[in-house]
Amino acid sequence: MQGSSDTARWKCGQGEMELRVPLYFFADWYCTRGRQFPWRKPGIDPFKILVAEVLLRQTRAEMVAVTWQVLVSKYANASALAAAEPGELLALVRGLGLGEQRTAALRELAAAVAARGGVPGSIEELKCLPHSGLYTAHAVTCFAFGARVPVVDLNAVRVLSRLAGIHPPADIRRAKVVWELAWSILPPDRVQEHNYGLLDFAAEICRSRRQRCSECPLASGCAYIAVRAGTTDQHEVIGRNRVPYIPSAQWSQDLMELAGPCEKPTNHLW
Length: 270
What we know:
Endonuclease Iii, domain 2, two-stranded antiparallel ribbon
């Protein structure tokens, strides 16, 4: 275990602040309490990881696990999936919900990957694939190719927003401040473990409902918990320990793609 007491620094608008999250907290969380799914095993083909991301949309990972194993066994590569009979594919994914939409997305995405000769390894190229947006591009470059990038879905948005005491837009493509936070807590290594750990922490502790705040190791620095307890407000919590911070070139480039101004803390809790 490679723990660290270092905390993440982030910049929002004119304010430089410190988010109280140990550098390797989420990576260590994954190593000790992380969920185990078949697409997370080492050496999984990038296309199969891409398929997993499509299946995981609006669906619990536990439900996806069995379907994913059957699907990638039956359709071992992009060409096979692109040529799949729609009715047979629909029968496989129907139980996950959004059956017809998911069937079409899988076939169109597979056809595009087959035409390219494989899954591209860059965020820009992945975003050009059908049914592959900002989150999917980051997830695949990290989990399939080991790139040092954050992976931000709505669950990660919830965790980071609660810790910092901000209220981001519902559309993560416009949640610039959350992507800033995600970049700021990204460790220099163990990035796959970190991103998996953040997603698993959201599923186990920082849930959308029935949050387990009493069990949260980050409770002492969490704006959401402080305000719920009535001991302070978000401005006091996130206003501690102001420090200078200069974002990296990669961070700056990533943020240029995100629309919308940096959100200021509000008194809205979610």
